Amino acid sequence: MNLNQHPSEIQGVSLESIAREFGLPLYVYDGEKIVSQIRSIQEAFSDVPLKIKYATKALSNISILKLIRNAGAGIDAVSIEEVKLGIMAGFDPVEIMYTPSGVSFSEIEEAVKLGVMVNLDSIPLMKQFGKQYGNQVPACIRINPHILAGGNAKISVGHKHSKFGISIEQLPEIIATVAAYDLNIAGLHVHTGSDILDAEIFLRGANVLFEAAKNFPDLRFIDCGGGFKVAYKAGDPATDIREVGDKVSKAFQDFCKEYGRSLELWLEPGKFLVSEAGYFLVEANVVKETPTITFVGVDSGLNHLIRPMLYDAYHDVYNLSNPKGGNQSYHVVGYICETDTLAADRVLPEVRQGDILVIKNAGAYGFSMASNYNSRLRPAEVLVWNGKAHLIRKRESFEDLVKNQVQLEF
Ligand code: LLP
Predict the structure, then answer these.
(1) What is the C-alpha end-to-end distance of the chain, expressed in Å?
(2) Any known ligand binding at 279?
(3) Which parts of the sequence bind substrate (predicted)?
(4) Going from the N-terminus, what domains does the chain have, and what CATH number goes with each?
(5) Which residues are registered as beta bridge partners of 96?
């Protein structure tokens, strides 16, 4: 077994000891991996004035946000709550981009009051923003570039029929609205989707913005969004970040030179920064043979990791407790009263009751999409940093589950 592929320790701390100390199920994050992913983007784009705005929604624990701030990135937030988490984590509001989709105007006002840049996602919002603030508050415009890209339909958001952004075909109306309301447009933004492998897609998105940018003389930045694909198993291809860096940086430099602009280039990676840094540790409660399938039932399910159910996402699984056992094929399933298959047809070293299984690529959209379905409690989170495991979120308790319920007496 390749221990690099299936680590038994993180930064020298054994996953078994972390499981013993903090209990299961448990999300464990490798802080060094997050920082090294940030560094690889910075290196790939070292020829341009780059700003990374981490997509908070991927993993929004405040300690993770602090770590990311410390590494020199800002954040992209999609709710006023994420904005507030960012401020709580110490981000200067000017380092926060607020990219909402169809929220109430009171949320927009709250963000402006907090000093955060708003990414305008519709023409009605541009008008309302213009009426309220005129040119007093700089804003960004989210363009829908009509590019179909992304790992699956649910995470493809830059195509013609997507709810996100303002269609590039409506550019004349965007320009007219900016003029009519004297809007102060500091940035243009695209985000075409998630799990995008092909560097050309990022270039196409950027080119749409460069073309549109000719109409906005006061622009300060171009935001090319996120969506870089990571590998979900051995041999799975990942976005070549250096290729994206080379292609987009060159086009960016050419644009700036040709039009005499001095702009910043912003990116909003989520998965790329945190997916591979996360390990979800669960315990095998039962190994159940049926006439057709051997199931491993674990002490978790779609309530803690919904990606396999929602997107048919593949997450690699390994047996931490019995790495040298004889191989068998299993369906790893959750305890939720739904068919919550976490991993189907996986060949694993023999799984015994009580074994710890590790689900990989659990850093992005794992805990942040967890719920209390079946009235289950959400797990704890641990960050390994400087060779030490730190609890960064306590396990939920039954009291947490009921604390907001108002009980009527009958
Ligand atoms: N910027 C914007 C405006 C976004 O909407 C997103 C993700 C990102 C950046 C970051 O994309 P990333 O680099 O993480 O691919 N829950 C799904 C992914 C949904 C992504 C939504 N928007 C999943 O687990 O695959």
Answers:
(1) 60
(2) no
(3) 307, 311, 338, 365
(4) 9-23+278-362+364-402 (2.40.37.10), 31-274 (3.20.20.10)
(5) 75
pLDDT at 156: 83
CA separation for the pair 281, 314 (Å, rounded): 16
- CA contacts within 13 A on the Cβ side of 389: 21
Residue 58 contacts residue 363 (beta carbons within 8 Å): yes
Q: Does the predicted interface ipTM exceed a cut of 0.95?
A: yes
Q: Which atom of ligand 1 is nearest to the CA of 272?
A: 13
- In this structure, which amino acid lies at residue 145? P
Asked whether 127 and 176 are in contact (CB, 8 A), the reply is: no
pLDDT of residue 3: 42
Q: Measuring from atom 19 of ligand 1, which residue has the nearest CA?
A: 155
Q: What is the pLDDT of residue 147?
A: 85
Q: Angle at the Cα of 287 (from 285 to 291), degrees rounded to 5? A: 145
Beta carbons of 123 and 180 less than 8 angstroms apart: no
What are the tokens at 362? 């659990």
Beta carbon of 111 within 6 Å of any ligand 1 atom: no
In the numeric block, the tokens 């997450």 are attached to 315
Beta-carbon contacts of residue 222 (< 8 Å; ≥ 6 apart): 187, 188, 206, 209, 210, 213, 252, 263, 264, 265, 266
Rounded to the nearest whole angstrom, what is the distance from the C-alpha of residue 364 to the centroid of ligand 1? 9
Q: Specify which residues 272 forms β-bridges with.
A: none
- Give dist(CA 410, CA 405) in Å, integer: 15
307 annotated as a binding-site residue: yes
Q: For 345-385, what is each residue's pLDDT tens digit?
A: 999 999 999 999 999 999 999 999 999 999 999 999 999 99
